[in-house]
Design a protein that fits this description.
The chain has 256 residues and is of the alpha+beta class. It has 3 helices and 12 strands. The longest helix has 23 residues. 38% of the residues are buried.
C-alpha cells in the first residue's frame, strides 16, 4: 500500500517579448515559457504496476500519457478524494541535476521538493473544490460512488543560475539572470474506484521551463516548478469531471 504522505527524510504569467539584452537592462517582471518535453516517460512502479501501456495517449488531453477504462461509466461517480502528493517515486539521483549554490546538498533538494509537493497538494484541493468541478471533494472513502486520485511527483529539477548573460557577467540573484539548468517537473497519477480499488484512469506528464531569461533568485527558486503544478491542478480537475477526458485546454503548453 502506498504511503500517501510527502517525504520529510533528509537525503498569470504573461509572455514577455525579449528585447536587446545587456547586463544593465532591467526587467520588472520575470517570464516563463512552460512546455511539454518530447522525451518519452519511463513510468515508475507507481503506474507500471497498473499494467497500462506507457505509450497510451488521448489526443484531446494535454498530457504525454493518458488512458481510461472505456468500459467504466464515469457518470455513476459523485465524489472524489485527492490523496496527498507522494515523493516516494522520485527517481534516484534526482538531486544532482539541481545541485548548485542554492541547492548544495541532497537534504536541501528534498526540503524544496517537499515544499513543492505541499504546494501542489494545496493547489489540487483548491481546484477540485471549484464549483465547476462535477465531483464533491471528500475524505470519506467508505462512501459509494467515490473516486480516489493519487499523484506521485517522479522527477524534479530546480533551475540553476548561470553566471553570465552573453559576454557580460551578472551576479547570482540579480533581477536579470540566466538559467543554466531549466526547471522541470514530472508526475504520474491514477484514478481508482474507492470501493473496489479498480484502476479507472492513468495520466503522466513531464514539463519544463525553457526560457533563458527570467526573474530568477533564490527566493523564487521553485516558482516555475510551482506554476507547472498549478496548471496541472486545473487540467486534472477538468479531466476528471463527469465528462471525463473531454477536451481539456492546453493553455500555453506545447511540445518543442
Amino acid at each position: 500500500m502506498l504511503s500517501n504522505q510527502t517525504l520529510t527524510m533528509p537525503f498569470h504569467r504573461t509572455p514577455l517579448t525579449l528585447l536587446a539584452i545587456s547586463a544593465t537592462f532591467s526587467l520588472s517582471l520575470g517570464s516563463c515559457s512552460l512546455k511539454n518535453t518530447t522525451t518519452g516517460i519511463e513510468h515508475t512502479p507507481f503506474l507500471a504496476s497498473t499494467g497500462v501501456a506507457s505509450t497510451s495517449h488521448l489526443a484531446r488531453l494535454p498530457f504525454q500519457h493518458s488512458w481510461r477504462d472505456p468500459d467504466v461509466r464515469i457518470d455513476q461517480y459523485k465524489n472524489i478524494i485527492v490523496r496527498p502528493i507522494t515523493l516516494r517515486y522520485l527517481k534516484v539521483g534526482q538531486w544532482a541535476k539541481s545541485e548548485g549554490p542554492w541547492i548544495p546538498t541532497e537534504k536541501s533538494f528534498l526540503r524544496n521538493s517537499n515544499n513543492l509537493a505541499k504546494f501542489w497538494d494545496k493547489s489540487l484541493k483548491h481546484s477540485f473544490s471549484s464549483p465547476v468541478c462535477s465531483y464533491y471533494l471528500t475524505q470519506n472513502a467508505s462512501q459509494p460512488q467515490t473516486l480516489i486520485l493519487e499523484v506521485a511527483l517522479t522527477e524534479i529539477t530546480f533551475g540553476r543560475p548561470a553566471p553570465t548573460v552573453g559576454a557580460a557577467s551578472v551576479p547570482a540573484g540579480s533581477l536579470l539572470n540566466t538559467v543554466n539548468t531549466p526547471p522541470l517537473v514530472a508526475f504520474e497519477a491514477r484514478v481508482k474506484d474507492a470501493t473496489t480499488g479498480k484502476i479507472i484512469a492513468t495520466v503522466s506528464d513531464r514539463r519544463t521551463d525553457r526560457l533563458e531569461i527570467r526573474n530568477f533568485t533564490k527566493t523564487n527558486l521553485a516558482e516555475a516548478n510551482r506554476e507547472i503544478c498549478k496548471q496541472w491542478s486545473e487540467q486534472l480537475m477538468q479531466s476528471t469531471n463527469r465528462e471525463l477526458f473531454a477536451k481539456v485546454k492546453g493553455s500555453w503548453f506545447s511540445p518543442f
